[in-house]
C-alpha cells in the first residue's frame, strides 16, 4: 500500500503557478502500530483495574492470576519498546522523504543545466522528535 503525500512547490517555468508533487511511500504503519498498542494497553489496564478493585478476593486466592497478569504486562512492555522503535524509524523515513535535497532531486525543473535550485529552510522536526522520546 503506497500513500501519496502532496506538497505544493513553485513551478519555475511559470513563476506564478504551483505544482503538486507527491511523496511516495507508506509512513503510516509505525504510527498505526503504536496507537493500536496504546489502545490495547489502555483496555487491558481498565480490565485489570476492574479485576483488582471489584474481584480482589479472586485475585488474591488464585495464584495463577498474578502470574498471568505479570506475563501480559511483560508482553505489553516488550511490544511498547518495539512500537517506539518503529515510530522512530517511521519518523526517520518521513525526515528522509522531506529533506530539502530529496525534494530538489524530485523536481524535474531542477535537473536542467542552467537552473540553480536552493533548498531554503530545513523543516522543523522538533515536536516530532519529542513525540518519539516521550
Which segments are poorly predicted (pLDDT under 50) over 5 or more consecutive residues?
Answer: none
**Biggest sheet overview:** 2 strands, antiparallel
Q: In terms of quaternary structure, what is this?
A: single chain
Which outline best applies?
rod-shaped
Share of β-strand residues: 5-15%
- How many beta strands in the DSSP annotation? 2
Run of helices and strands: EEHHHHH
Give the termini separation.
29 Å
Helical proportion? 55-70%
Can you give the mean pLDDT? 79
The neighbouring-strand order within the major sheet is 1-2
Name the structural class: mainly alpha
What would you report as the Rg, rounded to the nearest angstrom?
24 Å
Number of helices: 5
Main location: membrane
Protein name: SYPL2 protein
Family: Belongs to the synaptophysin/synaptobrevin family.
Membrane topology: Multi-pass membrane protein
Describe this structure in words.
The structure is a single chain. With 134 residues, this protein is mainly alpha-helical. It has a domain at 27-110. The protein contains 5 helices and 2 strands; from the N terminus they run E-E-H-H-H-H-H. The chain has helices spanning 29-54, 56-61, 64-97, 100-106, 126-133, and strands spanning 3-10, 18-25. A hairpin with a 7-residue loop joins strand 1 and strand 2. The longest helix has 34 residues, at 64-97. The mean pLDDT is 79. InterPro entries: Marvel, Synaptophysin/porin. Belongs to the synaptophysin/synaptobrevin family. Its main location: membrane.
Amino acid at each position: 500500500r503506497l500513500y501519496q503525500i502532496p506538497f505544493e512547490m513553485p513551478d519555475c517555468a511559470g513563476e506564478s503557478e504551483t505544482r503538486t508533487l507527491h511523496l511516495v511511500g507508506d509512513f503510516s504503519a509505525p504510527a498505526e502500530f503504536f496507537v493500536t498498542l496504546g489502545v490495547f494497553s489502555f483496555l487491558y489496564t481498565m480490565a485489570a483495574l476492574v479485576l483488582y478493585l471489584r474481584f480482589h478476593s479472586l485475585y488474591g486466592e488464585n495464584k495463577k492470576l498474578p502470574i498471568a497478569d505479570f506475563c501480559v504486562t511483560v508482553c505489553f512492555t516488550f511490544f511498547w519498546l518495539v512500537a517506539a522503535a518503529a515510530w522512530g524509524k517511521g519518523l526517520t523515513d518521513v525526515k528522509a522523504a522531506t529533506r530539502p535535497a530529496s525534494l530538489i532531486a524530485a523536481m524535474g525543473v531542477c535537473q536542467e543545466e542552467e537552473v540553480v535550485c536552493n533548498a531554503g529552510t530545513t523543516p522543523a522536526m522538533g515536536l516530532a522528535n519529542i513525540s518519539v522520546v516521550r
